[in-house]
Amino acid sequence: MVSRVIPVDPFDLIIFGGTGDLARRKILPGLFRRFCSGQMPPNARIIGAARANLGQAGYQEMIRAAIAEFGAPTDVENAQLGAFLAQLNYVAIDIRGDGGWAELAAMVRKNLVNAYYFSVGPGLFGDIASRLNTWGIATPEARIVVEKPFGRDLESAKSLNAILSAQFDENQIYRIDHYLGKETVQNLMAVRFGNLLFEPLWNAQYIDHIQITVAEIVGVGGRGAYYDKSGAMRDMVQNHLMQLLCLIAMEPPSHFDPDAVRDEKLKVIRSLAKVEPHHVVRGQYDATATMPSYRDDAENPRSFTESYVAIKTHIENWRWAGVPFYLRTGKKLKARTSEIAIVFKKLPHSIFEKSSDEKQNVLSIQLQPNEGMTLDVTIKEPGPGGMRLIHVPLDMTFADALGEHSEDTPDAYERLIMDVIRGDQTLFMRGDEVEAAWKWTDPIINAWENRNDVPKIYDVGSVGPEDAMALIHRDGRRWREVK
Ligand code: BG6
Predict the structure, then answer these.
(1) Domains of the chain
(2) How far, in Å, is the centroid of ligand 1 from the Cα of 28?
């Protein structure tokens, strides 16, 4: 099959924090895969910038080891590793001082696409942004890439936005939410806006409710110190779940272009109803005979941080009036699954025997691990014996449907970095979106903090706390199975 990979323009990508965890686990292995697929041109260059005194050869060795550890390269890919590493350079830099900046300025080829990845804590954003300008490194076309967490509340997000926008225009700033880079998340837009079928049904008249689940098996791992100050609400809901909700609920943008899409997402966030205290459940995983508790993992025996959240919310506009959106996410749950389920209303009238019309159509969009969609439909059970109905899934697992095409699917980071190089901001969060999302989550978090809320306990390997079940059962509905 002819490769569909189109090489990007030659670039210099500078990674501040180039020796850090994210760079070694995700960014460099991702770039290597793009290199192997032919998307990274031979004269593109990646410049790691960090404090350590490594030199080019030392950095190349570090990244060789990182790719072996985190990239799971095939033999064919390994054969190309040397050529990829040759495109890596390094500068030892003192972000808060003067060391290394002149060297960086001399290294960057300003006539190419320039992208600066701030793979460092937000406390350093301002230092990097202002030095890029005072040293005359950043051009007006340069792009900067920043990671979450983008603030920890509205106030801190505003101040980060102010720090960045003092040096760069909004069209130069790429705020990453890696969920937007996932293949199926983008497919959500393709499904909604590339088919006639769904749009007429995509509203309160036909949809009973929507569930968004992001369940993880992993705990907080070695990130306890960060996570314990964040919790699931800041770590997952404010960004990833919010973005999923936007893509489901937004109005069709007039074009698939960055601001048209982001304008519509912003309207959704601004239309979210204030969440009632009894419509939120926080949980924290407890130890089992063999598994440590959240408090053990976070090394904080008195922690009240949530590792699980379930929320019921509404969108206050015509399309969604009265349709509940149930969101939940948690760590150390029974299975790793991310799913969006659109549950349609019951039939207004059944011509069949009562028992057979109970089931509702459900469009389930599976983000991971098995990317695909199923539509539960009612059909006649084959064979004689009268009109017996059964409910079956119309299954479209993307790997089956796309065959060998599915193999060149880049992971979220790979795709997003290539979008930065292409200058496409569609899958990045705009500053006003991030602020609006904090504006919605802040009162929920503040209410917990003000009353010293104690999270409900759930067992490792379960589906979450009992109260989260009650949250949806009270409405006569059930969570989708976590499997
Ligand atoms: C990150 C969170 O943004 O997303 C992690 O900080 C979480 O806590 C991760 O585990 C989940 O991402 P994915 O792609 O594995 O679903």
Answers:
(1) 11-147 (3.40.50.720), 180-473 (3.30.360.10)
(2) 18
